Amino acid sequence: MAQTLFAPSWTLTDTLISIDQDTGSGTAVGPCADFIGGLTTWNNDLWGVRLSLDEIIKINPLTGATLYTISGLAFDFIGEGDIAVHPTTGIGWASAVSGGFGTQMYRIDLVAETATGTGSGANWITFTIKIDGLAYD
Which of 63, 51, 68, 61 shows the shortest CA–CA distance to 132? Predict the structure, then answer.
C-alpha cells in the first residue's frame, strides 16, 4: 500500500504511531504533542487537533514533531475532537465536543494555515448533539 496510516497514541505517552495496513501492527514513529485528537492529511502534510491547547498542528510524519501551530482557537476541547479537510481546496472543519454544549465546529484553511470563527456566524457552528468524527466523501 502506498500511503501510511497514522494514529496518535495516548497510552504510549503521546506517541505518533504508524499502522501496518496488512497486519494491523503499530510502530512508534516518535513522540508527538500531548493529547492529539483527529488526524488528517492535506497537500502531503499531516495535521492534527491538539486537544490540550486548543490548536491545529502540522506534524512531521517521520518524527512526530510539531512543525507548525494554528493557535487561538476558541474551543473547549474535553477529550474529543476531529479535523477534516477537503482534498482539493484545503478548506475544512475542526470539531470539538465542548462540555455540556454539544459540538462546536470551527472553519479552518490549511492553504493560508489559519482558523477563523468568533463563536457565531458562517465560520462557527454549534450542534446540540456530540460529534466525534468528520470526513469528506
Answer: 51
Query: Long-range contacts for 4-11 (Cβ within 8 Å, ≥24 apart)?
Result: 4/61, 6/39, 6/46, 6/61, 7/39, 8/32, 8/36, 8/37, 8/39, 8/48, 10/35
Provide the H-helix boundaries in the chain. none
What's the grid cell of residue 82? 476531529
For 12-50, the pLDDT digits (tens) are 678 899 999 999 999 999 998 887 878 898 888 999 888
Q: How many CB atoms lie within 10 A of CB 93?
A: 19
- 101 grid coordinates: 454544549
The three-state secondary structure class of 41 is strand
**Residue 65: all three cell numbers together:** 514533531
